[in-house]
């Protein structure tokens, strides 16, 4: 079989999410050496013959330390060098966006990869577990999508703009996802890639494929009762191929380790309710209702304190 010309070859994205790295040699929840987990994931992914871009969708650091971001950048750039591809990263609820940006540059941005337009938007709301996009971010997205790109567009962000499967994650969703969907209707956006859930999920919203990558740090047990939050050991990543016609093929990859499936935590419904109350959407939705009008989301994003959040 002959090799297809490079232009017909799908654009291949290696997506990593929720690495939750820490500085000072510390471990995630004192249980998982996330730097070692990332090493395992990257050495597994290194066998891919070609990758056109590495996309990292938030919760890259767990503690927001500059050391954690420097470690991540060094590790990602080392593997990206073998494919001569860029690293495109944005921030999640555990990240400290200003510290991230001192190491990686802007968390929002747009990059053309062989005709595929990849837009990154940070959904970080400092001090909270839910995510939000400001009116200015949505305006900028609409502007970037105004003219079609040859291979269409992909949006990379941390909080998936689709419903979560557990009570805790439902409290930590993206605020008002419909405002995002309203702005991309009729554009060439065909794929959204996200993280945050710590489990793979692929669904569609209209014509758009929404793909959530497995986490590097741990795995949410999707078979647990939805009012609990249970996580086990296990790491993965996603390979996303975008064909010349814009069709996305999503390949979630599990990286095997000897202690896979061992329980890390199993939060009771009461603990879930407490975390949802402290970091979740309810207060934000009430405030948004009270403020109403454009810019309300941006104000909500601006008022919170330093990075914090529950497990995911
Ligand atoms: Fe996370």
Largest beta-sheet details: 6 strands, mixed
CATH architecture: 4-Layer Sandwich
Percent in helix: 25-40%
What is the CATH class?
Answer: Alpha Beta
Strand content: 15-25%
Instruction: Kindly report the average pLDDT value.
Output: 92
Radius of gyration: 18 Å
Number of helices: 9
Poorly predicted tracts of residues: 293-308
Could you tell me which ligands this complex binds, including any ions or cofactors?
A: fe (ii) ion
Keywords: Hydrolase, Iron, Metal-binding
GO molecular function: hydrolase activity; metal ion binding
Organism: Nakamurella aerolata
Family: Belongs to the cyclic nucleotide phosphodiesterase class-III family.
Question: Could you characterize what this model shows?
Answer:
The chain is α/β, with parallel strands linked by helices and 312 residues long. It has one domain: Metallo-dependent phosphatases (Purple Acid Phosphatase, chain A, domain 2). Helix content is 29%, strand content 23%. The chain contains nine helices and 14 strands. A six-stranded mixed β-sheet has the order 4-5-6-7-9-8, with no helix packed on it. It has a five-stranded mixed β-sheet with strand order 3-2-1-12-13. A three-stranded antiparallel β-sheet has the order 10-11-14. A hairpin with an 8-residue loop joins strand 10 and strand 11. Helix 1 (34-45) packs parallel to helix 2 and helix 2 packs across helix 3 (97-104). The N and C termini lie far apart (45 Å). The model is unreliable at 293-308 (pLDDT under 50). Bound molecules: fe (ii) ion. Fe (ii) ion binds next to loops.
């Amino acid at each position: 079989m002959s090799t297809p010309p490079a232009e017909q070859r799908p654009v291949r994205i290696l997506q990593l999410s929720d690495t939750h790295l820490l500085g000072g040699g510390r471990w995630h929840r004192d249980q998982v050496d996330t730097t070692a987990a990332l090493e395992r994931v990257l050495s597994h992914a290194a066998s891919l013959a070609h990758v056109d871009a590495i996309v990292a969708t938030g919760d890259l650091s767990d503690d927001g330390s500059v050391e954690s971001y420097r470690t991540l950048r060094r590790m990602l750039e080392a593997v990206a060098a073998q494919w001569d591809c860029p690293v495109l990263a944005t921030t999640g609820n555990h990240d400290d966006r200003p510290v991230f940006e001192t190491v990686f540059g802007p968390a929002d941005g747009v990059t053309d990869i062989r005709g595929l337009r990849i837009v990154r938007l940070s959904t970080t709301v400092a001090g909270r577990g839910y995510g939000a996009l400001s009116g200015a971010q949505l305006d900028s997205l609409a502007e970037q999508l105004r003219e079609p790109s040859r291979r269409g567009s992909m949006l990379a962000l941390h909080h998936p703009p689709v419903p979560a499967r557990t009570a805790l994650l439902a409290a930590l969703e993206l605020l008002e996802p419909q405002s995002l969907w309203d702005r991309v209707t009729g554009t060439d956006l065909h794929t959204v890639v996200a993280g945050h859930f710590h489990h793979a999920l692929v669904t569609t919203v209209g014509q758009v494929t929404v793909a959530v990558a497995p986490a590097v740090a741990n795995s949410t047990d999707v078979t647990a009762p939805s009012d609990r939050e249970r996580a086990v050991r296990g790491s993965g990543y996603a390979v996303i191929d975008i064909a010349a016609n814009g069709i996305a093929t999503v390949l979630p990859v599990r990286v095997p380790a000897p202690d896979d499936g061992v329980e890390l935590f199993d939060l009771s419904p009461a603990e879930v309710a407490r975390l949802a109350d402290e970091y979740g959407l309810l207060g934000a939705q009430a405030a948004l209702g009270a403020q109403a009008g454009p810019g309300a989301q941006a104000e909500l994003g601006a008022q919170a304190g330093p990075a914090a959040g529950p497990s995911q």
